[in-house]
Every structure is written in structure tokens, then in C-alpha cells.
Amino acid sequence: MPTIHKEILIGASPEQVWDAVSDVGAVHTRLVPGYTENTMMDGHERTLMLPGGGSVRELIVSIDPNERRMAYAVKEGRIPLTHHHASLQVLPHDGNSAKLVWITDFLPDLLAAEIQARINRGAEVMKETIETEVRGGNR
């Protein structure tokens, strides 16, 4: 099973990054605007509405404020995954900045290049969005 491990250095405090990551119903405004147009919550299930009319259904598996870790699993989406589990964990890094560690396990293996590209772009958007929010600017 492929695993993608992505570390994102963010110019914001761990508390500020965790605030955005743990706000699971606001992915479309706090983490990846443009990648998602809206987020709908139904208990532990989250549906991300995508540009062009698609959607991704996810299960929020865990939100652990002590470890600053959120885990989720894709249940249904645009690409044909047979398994998906991911986590985002916020760690302190050099003074008042944070390291966001994004780990994703998935099947089938043949989707590795596509998943890696999506994670790389998602990481860029998350970093930019959180840093812009912290500076008090608009994206």
C-alpha cells in the first residue's frame, strides 16, 4: 500500500494552524479554497463540494486536540480508491512557526502519481491560505 508523507512548513503558530485544520466544516475557506467550493457536515461525515459539480465524501475519524491531529478517510470521490486514510498533525517548528505533517495511505497503487500531485498542490494551497489568514489578509 502506498504511503505519501508530506511536511509543510507554515509561517503561523501551531495553535493558529491547528485552529484551521480542526475546523473540519470549513475546508473550503480555511484550508483549500478553490479546490473546494463548500463543505457540508452530517455527524462525522463531511462532503466536499468541488468546482465543476463533483463531490468527495469523507469520514472524520478523529480530532485529537492534545496531539493536534485530525484523521479522515475518503469514502467516495472522483477517483476510484479502494482504500484511503489520511491524517494531518500540527507540530511546533522553529519559534513561532509550525510543521503540518500530512500522511496518506491509499489503494490502488497505480494512483500514486495522481495522489502525490494532488497532495503537493493541496499543501501549497493550505500553506498560502493559512499564512494569508494569519496576516489578516484576504486570499
TrEMBL record:
Domain of life per record: Bacteria
- Which InterPro entries does UniProt cross-reference here? Polyketide_cyclase/dehydratase (IPR019587), START-like_dom_sf (IPR023393)
Concerning Pfam families, the annotation shows: Polyketide_cyc2
Q: What is this protein called?
A: SRPBCC family protein
